[in-house]
Write a structure and sequence with these properties.
single chain; alpha/beta; Rossmann fold; two-stranded antiparallel ribbon; 6 helices; 7 strands; 16% strand; globular; binds magnesium ion; acid phosphatase activity; HAD_SF_ppase_IIIC; HAD_sf; Magnesium-dependent phosphatase 1-like protein; MDP_1_eu_arc
Amino acid sequence: MNRLFCTVAKNVANNKQLLKRKNLPRLAVFDLDHTVWPFGIDGFQYIPPYFYHEGKLIDVHGQEIRHFSDFPHIFQLLRDKGIQIAVASRTKFPTGAYHLIELFDWQKYINYYQIYPGVKVKHFERIREESAINFNEMIFFDDEERNIIDVGQQLGVDAILVDHETGVTEKIVIESLENFVTKQNSS
Ligand SMILES: [Mg+2]
């Protein structure tokens, strides 16, 4: 077996070990626009009503509406690890966001919803109240730096900035969980 392969195999084994430990976050919080789907719902690139036609979710003009491809697999992966899920969005079109979540059939994964305009610190304070989960037991994904700074620096949540074009991927989630566990173990 060559050395590189050994190292890779060892790292994979270590990572699996890491993720089995107890110090995983208890809650993962997701922004919506450009984090779970590749558009801003209040930008009205897609005009309601949204509905399924021949197996595709479309808007009134027949444009297909898609979420980022690693969802809902990411939600399932988190659930399988016993991690609860919340969404925190500042959209000006909350009814559209709720409707899309319902149409994608994601309610079965999501435990807490905070969807309305305003600073995200408020969304998180409400999530903490509702869930009774501390900020340091949460992990947060968002494509906007201002939210990452607000929530990360002010509240101490482990906040991960994602590329707005690719959103959250399974790879990002796994790496972020590993980093979370490493930080917990070293503190
Ligand atoms: Mg966003």
